[in-house]
Amino acid sequence: MSVDMVTISPPDDTPSVAARDRIVCFVNDELSAAALRKGLEGANVAIRRGTIRNAMRMLETDTDLFALVVDISGIADPFTELEKLSVLCPPDVLVALIGESREITFYRELMEIGLTEYLPRPLTRDMVLHQLRPKLLGDVAPGAADRGGHVISICGAQGGAGATSIAINLALQLAETTKAKVALLDLHLQNGETAVMLGVRPGPGLRIALENPMRADTLFLERAAIEINDRVSLISADEDLDAQLDITEAGVRHVLGLLRQRFSYIVVDVPVPFPPSIHPVIMLSRHVLVLLEAEVTGLRNAHALRTAVTNIAGKDRVFTLLNRANRAGGLPRATIVKALGAEPDMVIPDLGKGMTQAVNLGVPALKHVRALRRHLAPIVREIAGVGAQRKGWLRRLFR
Ligand SMILES: Nc1ncnc2c1ncn2[C@@H]1O[C@H](COP(=O)(O)OP(=O)(O)OP(=O)(O)O)[C@@H](O)[C@H]1O
Ligand SMILES: [Mg+2]
Asked: What is the pTM of this model?
């Protein structure tokens, strides 16, 4: 890309040191903005609404930055616009693009003209974390070298927020979409509802493994996992309510380690508040979903729960899921956004009495309430990414 015609630069050509780490992103959709915010957490990032044209307008007066991330969706002739951008953009500023094309030739052409990276929309936090962040910031994405299964924790900010329903159906839909093996781990050992909702009876295996990790070998899974279908297994317990359990952190770490060797995804129904013994689950989670309903109690607890997760695992893992949105009598959306300080990351509307009927029938709601699948799809996409295999192929081809 020619940069001979750079005409606008700071008078003495020495940008201030303070702004040299600044990354400015111009995107037009909320999903991409959220993915960039989370994936570039900790960096000096400004996210603005707009496309490559807005970026050029900024560069006319402000070139004091480290990197630029711009959306070229809807631009008829991106190469002409990129040519213009290159004139305004100082040569040492990294430029990454977001767009609609998934064509390999397009990607290759962009790399040839010296762009840092190209990501197809819709962006996910993981795409930003694993593909863009290392190129912009040079740091390795957290967990990138970690080959174990992807842990997703589901925590209800209030009782009855739908944590168990979401955990079960998310596990089923993840398996269906990705064709990978999925474990559903219920850490409510005494009053867990996953088994009831799926119409199965757990044995004592999980409790034994969590209390005495030395006794949990690879046979543990054969004994404790109940196959829900070809790809999904449930690992849960049904201990007496008056039982004195002695769950240890080592036990939790060991069980999770075994599950992560065998399954690609582990969806965990997590008891709240977290007993210290289950901190390893939060620590190893790539996604922690904090569920709340549009109620005062949910709002109050969601804030505290997000803070607890952040303290254990870091801020970029936490996603707020507003469940049963628009339920009659619930708080208005504006009140919720104000109290949360932001829009919820994910929303599932109230899906009516079919959800409770499914519980009473002992069948997954996914099979009983048709709309649930559609509302879970964006969450599955955030967790698994789109075209995960294709991403791997691109990486091998180019690096
Ligand atoms: N989006 C929804 N629309 C309608 N009903 C729902 C929705 N999500 C969950 N429910 C219903 O709400 C009830 C409580 O759900 P669930 O048991 O999953 O919540 P929970 O957070 O796990 O509760 P607990 O605090 O008891 O563990 C169930 O009857 C379930 O079917
Ligand atoms: Mg529950």
From this structure: 0.71
